[in-house]
Amino acid sequence: MLYEFCAESLEALPRALAAGAGRVELCDDLSVGGLTPGPAMIQEALTLGLPLVLMIRPRAGNFVYSGAEVELMVAQIKQAKEMGVSSFVFGVLLEDGSLDQENLYRLLAEVGDGEAVFHMAFDQIPWEQRLEALDWIAQAGFQRILTHGGPLEQDLYTYADYLDRIIARAAGKIDIILGGGITLDNRDQIAQRFGVTQLHGTRIVG
């Protein structure tokens, strides 16, 4: 089982790694769901030598971005790659909640041979489009999808039937990592229920 620790500061990272975190999602300002951290924080995190995936999100709010915002995201990826980052997490949608395929391809091109993860913007895609969206995300070159199943106000079990369909559809195509409300106390039960091998959270290792 791989536990991905979501961090907005560096202070907790050594303890999280010692407690069993296998990877870190690095971001800033978790109060708004996470934003791209600054270069100084990224550089310091890299010196710890830990497996790192970097949040690329230029602002709080929805995931419908202007052309200028997408170019900022491209620049953030470029700068982070020059610093040594090779794994990125992001998502871009259109006004109707469908995938912004054009801009996702733009970002994937900048990631290049690195790793791309589609974040919880996936949970804002209309229900009836998500299975096909999963297929496109996998085909486009993403390695993982981070999902809770729906709004974070409800726990994962609320979306169990839906998540079962997502996980089954993803088999052999793309990895699914579950997140949102997963803690040291409930992680084993969730992993067993959904049959996943990766879990994500701010309290995933206590």
How would you characterize this protein structure?
- It comes from Streptococcus danieliae.
- Belongs to the CutC family.
- One of its GO terms (cellular component) is cytoplasm.
- With 206 residues, the chain is α/β, with parallel strands linked by helices.
- It has a domain at 37-179: Alpha-Beta Barrel (TIM Barrel), CATH 3.20.20.380.
- The protein has 7 helices and 8 strands; from the N terminus they run βαβαβαβαβαβαβαβ.
- The model has no long low-confidence stretch (mean pLDDT 96).
In the sheet with the most strands, the strands line up as 1-2-3-4-5-6-7-8
The secondary structure category is alpha/beta
CATH class of the domain at 37-179: Alpha Beta
The helix fraction, in percent, is: 25-40%
Q: Please tally the helical runs, counting DSSP H or I stretches of 4 or more residues.
A: 7
Radius of gyration: 16 Å
The beta-strand count equals 8
Largest sheet: 8 strands, parallel, barrel
- Return the CATH architecture of the domain at 37-179: Alpha-Beta Barrel
What is the CATH topology descriptor of the domain at 37-179? TIM Barrel
Mean pLDDT: 96
Low-confidence stretches: none
Note the beta-strand portion: 15-25%
Global shape: globular
Calculate the terminal CA-CA distance, rounded to whole Å: 15 Å
